[in-house]
């Protein structure tokens, strides 16, 4: 799945399949300007930062079990979000400090460091990623991902895929080759 925020005509947090199909709003009320998003891949939670409402909130992948993690003026200057173990990590764009916030109750806010021009934060860990089961976009015997000549996107499940073409190309009638 692909998760994203939008605060154009109607602010929302959405999800869709990797090929853009099955687009679903998972949060569309009491939301104004969601500007950052982080996923807890293990427990299947979506965290987002709303700078207009000055809040950090969370829901599950279906948009249920919504909770406010923290709220207040300090949120106004946050510009990104990452999750790791028991904490959310973010950058305060006002003073360029990296903050750590308890993701269960919003307490234990700590400034960890200051960095010049910090605009994004990512968490990397040494723990190996779980093995991925075989999927529809695996490289075939001709070296093409999922049998697609350009781009293979997983669809509604790991067994389904959609082929797409790079800019300037059109998908052929076979649904795999690009012309």
UniProtKB/TrEMBL annotation:
GO BP field: canonical Wnt signaling pathway
Pfam family, one: Ldl_recept_b
LDL-receptor class B repeats: 1-43
SMART domains, per database record: LY (SM00135)
GO MF annotation list: Wnt receptor activity; Wnt-protein binding
InterPro entries assigned: 6-blade_b-propeller_TolB-like, Cueball_EGF_LRP_Nidogen, LDLR_classB_rpt
Any single Gene Ontology cellular-component annotation: plasma membrane
Record PANTHER family: EGF-LIKE DOMAIN-CONTAINING PROTEIN, VITELLOGENIN RECEPTOR-LIKE PROTEIN-RELATED-RELATED
Protein name per its UniProtKB record: LRP1B protein
Protein species of origin: Certhia familiaris (Eurasian treecreeper)
Gene name of this polypeptide: Lrp1b_1
């Amino acid at each position: 799945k692909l998760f994203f925020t939008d605060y154009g005509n109607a602010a929302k947090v959405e999800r869709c399949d990797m090929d853009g199909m099955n687009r679903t709003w998972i949060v569309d009320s009491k939301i104004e300007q969601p500007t950052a998003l982080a996923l807890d891949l293990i427990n299947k939670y979506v965290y987002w930062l709303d700078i207009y409402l000055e809040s950090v909130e969370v829901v599950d992948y279906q948009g249920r079990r919504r909770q406010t993690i923290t709220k207040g003026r300090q949120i106004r200057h946050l510009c990104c979000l990452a999750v790791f173990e028991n904490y959310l990590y973010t950058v305060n764009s006002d003073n360029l400090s990296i903050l750590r916030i308890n993701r269960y109750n919003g307490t234990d806010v700590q400034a960890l460091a200051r960095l010049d021009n910090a605009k994004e934060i990512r968490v990397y860990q040494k723990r190996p990623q779980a093995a991925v089961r075989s999927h529809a976009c695996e490289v075939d015997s001709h070296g093409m991902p999922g049998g697609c000549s350009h781009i293979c996107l997983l669809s509604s499940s790991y067994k389904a895929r959609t082929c797409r073409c790079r800019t300037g190309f059109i998908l052929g009638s076979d649904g795999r080759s690009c012309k």
